[in-house]
Design a protein that fits this description.
Helix content is about 55%, strand content about 10%. It is an alpha/beta fold. The strands form four sheets. It has a six-stranded mixed beta sheet with strand order 1-8-3-4-2-7. A two-stranded antiparallel sheet has the order 5-6. A two-stranded antiparallel sheet has the order 9-10. α4 packs parallel to α6 (about 185-195), α17 packs across α19 (about 470-485) and α27 runs antiparallel to α28.
Length: about 750
């Protein structure tokens, strides 16, 4: 009788055990797809590890993270099947990776980054004996991490080789340079190993313009937050501090036995942590992260005995069926509760609300899009619910969070209200986050308001979404829920909130980086406006007062303080969506200033209102931001541009920017001032009878415009914002001094209008 149990071996292995098998290398066959993990995959992995350490802090000793199934097939004829090859450099055992190459590759890269950070921090520790134990722990982790990304052949130069290579383009080499590793993953591993073996002080640079390079940068950004978590003034949302780790996690987990000298350093830290204390904290935080990765993250490893069985198993595990989400697996709990209390789910209030949630996901047909929306939706719901940590992106954490919060609702009404809140957010997502003015002119529920208000609310929403300011949705969705529940004046208040959030965000990001902004919203939700706090302080007045106090705390709450920073900070190279919005705000109802040629000033209300309109925001005529003085001019060939603009990247200032249609922007490119001025003249001219005169004027300055270019220029509409620039004239100067004046004027108008929205 055939014994099916012998068809394959299977086991559960930690990351450490999986990679530490001596002499084992992984080979990705030619038919496998390229490395393709996305930013979302990276964020999921890094967040899960960080949350795992959080679970240990909360003394969940069973906390593990399942990283999926890996299918490996032992290569029985390496000399024939491994191509290209240097037979002297073949590992003792080679496994073909049938499924799991993305995870193996990514964890190998992560191992490099952890090794590098621990190596650098160890070198910066003093030579005092008190740090010997910490150095010993670091070296033990470094030794394990080395095995995550390398296989030790115990021969050749260097003896360590990349643990994973890609068939047909990579080949394990006995010695020599690393040119034999051509794939992005193996090339980076090889160069990293080379730096270690030769004890070079610098580690390899992150590869540019590749997915591997982007993912390395993304993992590094997470590790930077882990490393610096002890520096946070408020509760760190990313990772626990060293003192929490040493207080809550048994030390034998981290380094085999207790080290009171380390506890003493951390516990007796100064109020303002010294540089050495900070390094010790960083090391402890990174070691906790490494511990969870190595000992708490695990795979199910399957090793079929034949290639046919390997691929049958692969197909079975990767079937085309769409996996269930946390929301779908949470729904039966609601159904069962309703049935146990009211007798029937169908026709119940909870079913009505759940229908809104189901509707949000109904149009999605792929597993990835469904999972992505679930993750983002539950993240937003978690924030609005209580302002605390969102329910992660891991399926089990999400379902546990939903179940816990639902069960905490003590009455039937409370449980119905929980689902009602989820439904309100689903409707907000459909109507506001997915708002498209080419499909629907204004945001639903604002239709009855005056034209100005509903358009300004819509453009604020579009702007905040384009700028990637997702935290704005926490507050907007809370106020939009009042519209959905038909509270008095809810639509008027929603418009005011859209403008207030846009104003606060613009004033902050035009003067300061993004750091700390999310925590401002979390605190507002926790203390005043989350679902759990109720609606007693859910008012426009409370919101505006809170925002203005924050600006004062950040020393940008007064015009002069904000302007001093904004004139230096606000520019194209910070956040382009903000630059675009600022140009819209300062073009709306403004006119050329007759006393300051080239500048605009505020005109009468309604003098030119088309800019704060959602249709204008998405119009091709305003698609791109133009640098008037080009980004890359040929200063030797073209003397019309002031070299001083390029000494400190002052050409990036908001005063050097304007709005142009894409095709015209491409055409204008790096042209001289006179050529650009001719372009702007055509754009600003609304009288078709003067086009012939403009062509003659262009020829006078030696600028020849072909008919196709003129057609592009004259077909563009709404070029009112160009008129102040045109008044400078062809012989005028667009230099650093003028750009600074224009920057100052733009900031003056911006402050006046944004602060009005906050008042």
């Amino acid at each position: 009788m055939f014994d099916v149990s012998k068809a394959f071996d299977n086991s559960s292995e930690t990351v450490s055990d999986f990679f530490q098998r001596p002499g084992v290398g992984f080979y990705i066959p030619l038919y496998q797809r390229d490395y393709s993990w996305t930013k979302e995959n990276i964020d999921q992995l890094m967040e899960d590890i960080c949350r795992g350490v959080d679970s240990l802090i909360e003394q969940d000793n069973n906390a593990i993270r399942f990283l999926g199934t890996i299918i490996l097939l032992l290569e029985k004829d390496a000399r024939t099947n491994i191509k290209p090859q240097d037979h002297r450099a073949l590992p003792e055992k080679i496994f073909n990776v049938i499924d799991g190459q993305q995870r193996i590759s990514t964890i190998s890269l992560l191992g490099c980054l952890l090794y590098q950070k621990l190596y650098i921090l160890e070198k910066r520790l003093p030579s005092d004996n008190i740090y010997d134990g910490l150095k010993e722990a670091i070296n033990r982790y470094k030794s394990t991490l080395l095995e995550i990304f390398s296989v030790d052949l115990k021969r050749g130069l260097p003896q360590q080789k990349p643990i994973i290579i890609r068939g047909s383009i990579d080949g394990w080499t006995f010695d020599g340079n690393d040119d034999h590793y051509q794939s992005d993953v193996s090339s980076f591993l090889a160069s990293f190993i080379r730096k270690i073996s030769e004890e070079q002080s610098e580690f390899p640079k992150i590869p540019e313009n590749s997915l591997v390079g982007k993912n390395i940068k993304q993992m590094n950004s997470w590790l930077n937050k882990v490393e610096k978590s002890h520096q946070q003034e408020t509760e760190n949302e990313y990772f626990p501090t060293a003192w929490c780790i040493l207080e809550k996690i048994p030390q034998q987990y981290l380094w085999s036995y207790e080290r009171p000298e380390l506890v003493s350093i951390v516990e007796n830290r100064q109020e303002k942590i010294s540089r050495i204390e900070g390094r010790v904290c960083s090391i402890i935080q990174l070691l906790a992260f490494s511990y969870y990765l190595l000992q708490r993250c695990c795979f199910t490893l399957i090793e079929p005995k034949s290639e046919d069985w390997a691929f049958d198993m692969f197909q079975s595990l990767n079937a085309t069926g769409t996996p269930l989400t946390a929301i779908e697996t949470f729904k039966p709990l609601v159904v069962n509760f309703v049935k146990s209390t009211n007798g029937e789910f169908k026709g119940s209030i909870s079913e009505k609300h759940f229908g809104k949630i189901d509707q949000l996901f109904s149009s999605l047909d792929s597993a990835s899009s469904k999972n992505n929306l679930t993750n983002n939706y539950l993240t937003l719901f978690g924030l609005t619910y209580d302002g605390g940590k969102d329910p992660s992106r891991q399926f089990s954490f999400q379902r546990q969070w939903l179940t816990k919060k639902y069960n905490e609702c003590s009455s039937i009404n409370d449980k119905e209200e929980f689902i009602h809140r989820m439904a309100n957010l689903a409707t907000y997502w459909e109507k506001v986050i997915k708002f498209k003015p080419n499909e629907y002119p204004v945001i639903p529920r604002t239709e009855q308001l005056n034209d100005k208000d509903k358009k300004q609310a819509a453009i604020c929403v579009l702007y905040l979404q384009n700028a990637g300011h997702t935290m704005a949705n926490t507050i907007l969705s809370r106020f939009y829920s009042l519209c959905l529940r038909e509270e008095i004046n809810a639509n008027v208040n929603f418009v005011s909130v859209c403008k207030a959030v846009a104003a606060f965000f613009t004033l902050w990001r035009s003067a300061l980086p993004n750091t700390g902004l999310d925590e401002i919203y979390r605190k507002l939700l926790r203390e005043k406006m989350s679902w759990q706090k109720g609606d007693s302080e859910l008012s426009v007045e409370v919101l505006k007062a809170y925002f203005k106090n924050v600006l004062i705390e950040k020393e940008i709450g007064i015009n002069t303080d904000w302007k001093r920073k904004a004139t230096r900070y606000l520019g194209y190279n910070k956040v382009q969506a903000i630059s675009k919005f600022v140009l819209f705000i300062t073009s709306h109802d403004t006119i050329p200033d007759p006393d300051r040629i080239g500048l605009m000033k505020i005109g009468t209300s309604g003098s030119y209102p088309i800019y704060l309109d959602p249709a204008t925001w998405i119009s091709p005529d305003f698609k791109t931001i133009e640098h008037v003085a080009p980004q890359k001019p040929n200063l030797q060939a073209d003397a019309t541009w002031d070299e001083a603009l390029y000494e400190n990247d002052d050409y990036e200032q908001i005063g050097n920017l304007t709005l142009l249609p894409t095709k015209i922007n491409s055409s204008a490119g790096n042209k001289s001032w006179i050529e650009k001025w001719i372009y702007y003249r055509h754009l600003a001219e609304s009288n078709p009878g003067k086009l012939a005169e403009l062509r003659q004027e262009a020829e006078k300055y030696g600028v020849i415009l072909d008919n196709s270019t003129i057609k592009l220029l004259t077909e563009a509409s709404h070029a009112h914002h160009i008129k102040p620039i045109v008044e400078i004239e062809a012989t005028g100067k667009w230099d650093k001094a003028f750009v600074e004046k224009r920057t100052e004027r733009i900031c003056d108008i911006l402050w006046e209008r944004m602060y009005e929205w906050l008042s």
